[in-house]
Amino acid sequence: MNHFPTTLLDAQQYSNATYVGGATDLMPLFKNNVRDDQELVFLTRIPELHGIEVEGKRLRIGAAVTLTELAESPLLQKHFPAAAQAASVVASPQIRNIATLGGNIMQDRRCIYFNQSEGWRSAIPLCFKTGGKVCHQIPNSPVCRAIYYSDAATALLLYECEVSYLEQGRTVSEPLSSLLHRHIEANGLSCHEHLPVIVTHFHLPIPSGEERSGFHKYAMRTTIDFPLINFALRCGGERRAKLIAGAVAPEPVELTQTAALLETDSSDDDVLQACVQELKALAKPIKEACITPPRKRDLYLQLAPLLELRRR
Q: Can you give the pLDDT at residue 37?
């Protein structure tokens, strides 16, 4: 059963339902019978969840804003170019016209043992995400090792993004990293385990004019496929340099040691080697479609295109 509320008050009536934006992430999961949510609440008809506007010293983005709107927003392109660039390379133009920022952030983690047809999965034991007690990637792992592939999350985390959401009738505002950790942890227990929250807005503090930032995604087909790796980097300005890597672990990771080198006279080669070493410590590659774990480690050098930001 589908519901299309037009107010947040109406949306909160369906506490046992699944809240969705454009539902582009869910459709393949329904097709493969790994999810069978019986009640969906579509949030895109709620006017309050739309719009990108300056609010004091922050930019407020509605959770129902589409990825196309994000990519084309002059405000994002000016103040948060990494976020606009990330949105512009998610999936295909058709999907970006439908997919929402909130939905992209709250997407399921993915794994080659999970994202398969029902017939294929019937030959192996149930994994954590399908109700079992094993991770086929790492059989002795006590938790799911599926990877989180959001491009938008990597970029938003670069900017100390805060998120507002409704949970059990109350409004909560906290760092996006906190909500993301809760969501990812629950999603690793089972694909049916989702937080009973309605994400409403994302808030980005507007940086100084000297800050430079950018996003780079590497994929088999950059504007169609999920990333094999992505990076968001900022430097210059009043805030310290920051570097986030995505599609390497169950959630995006911050590379603090590598970012510190961006503020020194270290060569690009030194920065790249630091990135490789730090990611080796933080990310444990697993089997993915079209790439082996050793080849995945080679992609840690994909940070290189963003190092041009140091010289602008």
A: 86
Query: CB–CB of 104/150 below 8 Å?
Result: yes
The residue written with tokens 């959401």 in the block is: 165
Bin 168: left if φ > 0, else alpha if -120 < ψ < 50, else beta: left
Cα separations in angstroms, 103 against 1, 206, 232, 267, 291: 19, 23, 20, 39, 26
Question: 22-80, pLDDT tens digit by residue?
Answer: 999 988 898 888 888 889 999 999 999 999 999 999 999 999 999 999 999 999 999 99
Q: What is the reported pLDDT for 217?
A: 97
Distance, in Å, from the CA atom of 307 to the CA atom of 285, rounded to the nearest integer, reads 24
Contacts of residue 27, Cβ cutoff 8 Å, sequence gap at least 6: none
Distance of CA 54 to the CA centre of its chain: 23
CB atoms within 10 A of CB 141: 14
pTM for this prediction: 0.96
Burial of 241 (0-12, 13-18, 19+ CB in 10 A): buried
Are 194 and 41 contacting, i.e. CB atoms less than 8 angstroms apart?
no
Q: How far is 175 from 121, CA to CA, in rounded Å?
A: 36
Contact 103, 24 (CB under 8 A): yes
Residue 120 tokens read as: 């294929």
